[in-house]
Amino acid sequence: MNTANESMQNIIGLPVYTNRGIFVGYVYDIILEMDYGGISGILIKETNEALVEDGFPISIPYDWVKAVGDAVLLHTFPQVVKRKLMPM
């Protein structure tokens, strides 16, 4: 595995926090942009029900990430994420 892949794999499992220090959830997977080989988004599971309706998994753009270390810190996040039901 190359260094870029190892770095991407290190993100999986990290807790995610808003810029106000509120827990959002845990990184479950990464979304790659195949055209340039970088991360375009992250999939978050075990989400905070106070922020994400019913604690559903969400994906967010990687542009929202401010820093990655022992946790992922976001520079922006909506106050509440509501689930959109698809018509049948």
Which descriptors apply to this entry?
globular; 10% helix; mainly beta; 6-stranded mixed beta sheet; SH3 type barrels; 88 residues
Short description:
With 88 residues, the protein is mainly beta. It has one helix at 3-11, and strands spanning 15-17, 23-33, 38-45, 58-61, 65-68, 72-74.
| SS class | mainly beta
Helix count from the secondary structure assignment: 1
Average pLDDT number: 85
What is the CA-atom radius of gyration, in angstroms?
Answer: 13 Å
Which homologous superfamily in CATH is the superfamily? PRC-barrel domain
The low-confidence runs, each spanning 5 or more residues with pLDDT under 50, are: none
Q: CATH class, anyone?
A: Mainly Beta
What's the structural domain tally?
Answer: 1
| C-alpha geometry | globular
Strand content: 35-45%
- The helicity comes to 10-25%
Query: How is the biggest beta sheet arranged?
Result: 6 strands, mixed
Helix/strand order, N-terminal first = HEEEEEE
User: Kindly, what is the distance between the CA atoms of the first and last residues, rounded to a whole number of angstroms?
Assistant: 43 Å
The assigned CATH architecture is: Roll
